[in-house]
Amino acid sequence: MWKHAMTLMLIVVGVALLFPRGEEKAKVTPPEEITPAAEMRMKQATLNSDMALTDELCRTQCSMELRRIAQGAKARSGEDNRSMLQTLRKEHPHMELLLVTRRGEGMDRVAAAAGSLKPDVRTAAAAHVAKAKIAVDSGRSYQSPPVKADGGTYLIVGEPEAGGSAGVIGVVRQHILQQVADHQRKNLRIETYPSDGHYKIESVDARTLQDVKVDHPEDNEGTSHYHKNQVVVRFKQVPSETDFEKMKQEIGGGTVQKLGYTYVFESSKMEAKQLMDYFKKWNVAYSEPHFLYLTNQDAAVEPAADPTAVLTPNDSLYRRYQYNLPEIATEAGWNVSKGSSDVIVAVVDTGVDLDHPDLKDQLVSGINIVDPNSKPYDDVGHGTHVAGVIGALTNNNLGVAGMSWYNRIMPIKVLDQTGAGSTYAVAQGIIWATDHGAKVINMSLGNYADAEFLHDAIRYAFDRDVVLVAASGNDNTERPGFPAAYPEVLGVAAVDANKAKATFSNYGDYISVTAPGVSIASTYPQNQYAALSGTSMASPHAAALAGLIRSVNPALKNTEVMDIMKSTSGDLGTPGHDRYYGHGLIDVAAALRAAAAAGAGTGRDAAGGAGTAAGPETGGGGTAAESASPAADAGMTQEEWEEWVRQMFQ
């Protein structure tokens, strides 16, 4: 028992890994030959790359939001403009000042404003606000260089209404740059650290519904899928039953479905735009198409006519910033499965931003082990980023795309505001997730201590058919890191955009597979997006694939899921399994096709266990005998051991 007590003092930290984006594979230095000084320089280069890409993500998102508000600004009343600006500031508190300005009117006569600036910030930003005004009056967009003030970095953005008759100017504090810098200095160890038949695509802006001229595939950003004969309506005052019957008669019959404060009308003879025009006379707060992302339906298996075809989502940041999903054939894989809400993926991490618009509808109830009286909110950013890789809402015209469209995410907060947590907390989180229905658990965290206390929790989950996935670590070392090196866990290393080993990705015989882990764009707290590097980012790609496999074939055992992931990976490095890449780079399309073709799982023991874990020769971290009977190792019966585990984690 003393071993279990000692492990309570161990600290488990989030791991993130790193390799300068774009470095050519031929220039990679063998891991054993990288000196500490060179490693530190590479870590700093990775940090700089992540910050530069995060800055670009911030600028792109801010411009898109201001462009949306700018459309129709001239025609709206001052109060309506002010209300929209206030709503935008509430959603994006880092936008400290927002202004609606009309052509020909000076800055002392803005049409609407929301927010305020400190005097020194106002002084520093004044010249760029004036330049933004000139630009939007001329129908041009504007972005300032970084502006330093009040101990932070600011950005001034201007976006015109079509034609330049009005525009919106914003002064944005880029808190996220300092947050990412602080985050990655710790994670990189730079500082000491303990379309189907029901839908059609229209070229319209998803929010303003204004027609968009599409002259090039890139112009498709902002278009959306919607049901061709349905419209979503919210009335300012609920109509009477007589009025409802009149509406149904006038639109040609169909159905009416109430969803909260809104109603979905379906017509047998009118299309969405006709329906929206019709409802204008009924005192509505709004009427809009019934967009695909509102339906939130499952699509576990969706075979395509051409199984090699790819499906490119319309998320606004996808095409430009998310190389990682095409690199592992995710788009082609979506033709087989987009996931299922029945399969839950737990994120054992720093928590998740429960209010992020690209995540909140994907979450199920979780737990805060650090503070049991609070919800599992993310106060670091790491867990939110990991969760976005797995399941950010996809094809919703917003932000980034997750690997799974429908798998649910269970936030388990085990790491505190410093990004660290005890072995006990991590173990407790694993047990809780297992007992509450998680089918896959992602652990983007690690330590070099082989803690039996944590291993007991790992075996508890493994014996209950959970697929366990973990990041290998960030020190470019062959020394095994845990939990990734446990034989029950799928250990994941990182590669870059060129499929080369991320320079600081840990390696060894325990590595099962690799996944993208360099400059990965994903969700970040406070309705933001950031680029981070690390095996922390590689691991959720593999966890998401496990969730997709269990969606397409729920009968597969956890060992069978892991075997499919390894056997379908694209070989990298030395032919066969090797210590740098494991079995190779995960291939979503190949894995899902194999899962769909596989039969039901066999060989489960009477107690519901998942069989033995893979040994080193197949990419596991130990021998099968080492994990076959934790109860016997403890000198207990199986029932006694399970009861002991439950009591220890209560």
Brief overview, please?
The protein is of the alpha/beta class and 650 residues long. The chain is 33% helix and 19% strand.
Structural class: alpha/beta
CATH topology of the largest domain: Rossmann fold
Low-pLDDT runs of 5+ residues are 1-28, 194-225, 290-305, 601-628
Q: State the shape.
A: globular
Extended strand count: 23
Largest sheet: spatial strand order: 14-15-13-17-19-20-21
Classify the oligomer.
single chain
The CATH superfamily label of the largest domain reads: Peptidase S8/S53 domain
Q: How many separate domains make up the residues?
A: 3
CATH architecture type of the largest domain: 3-Layer(aba) Sandwich
Q: Estimate the helix proportion, in percent.
A: 25-40%
Strand content: 15-25%
Tell me, rounded to a whole number, the average pLDDT. Answer: 80
For the record, the CATH class of the largest domain is: Alpha Beta
Distance between the termini: 17 Å
Rg (C-alpha, Å)? 26 Å
What does this structure look like?
The protein is of the alpha/beta class and 650 residues long. It folds into three domains: 2-45 and 314-648, Rossmann fold, CATH 3.40.50.200; 72-187, Beta-Lactamase, CATH 3.30.450; 225-295, 2-Layer Sandwich (Alpha-Beta Plaits). It is 33% helix and 19% strand. It contains 20 helices and 23 strands. The strands form five sheets. It has a seven-stranded parallel β-sheet with strand order 14-15-13-17-19-20-21, with helices on both faces. Strands 2, 3, 4, 5, 6 and 7 form a six-stranded antiparallel β-sheet that branches. Strands 8, 9, 10, 11 and 12 form a five-stranded antiparallel β-sheet that branches. β5 (147-149) and β6 form a beta hairpin. α13 (423-435) runs parallel beside α14 and α15 (535-552) packs parallel to α17.
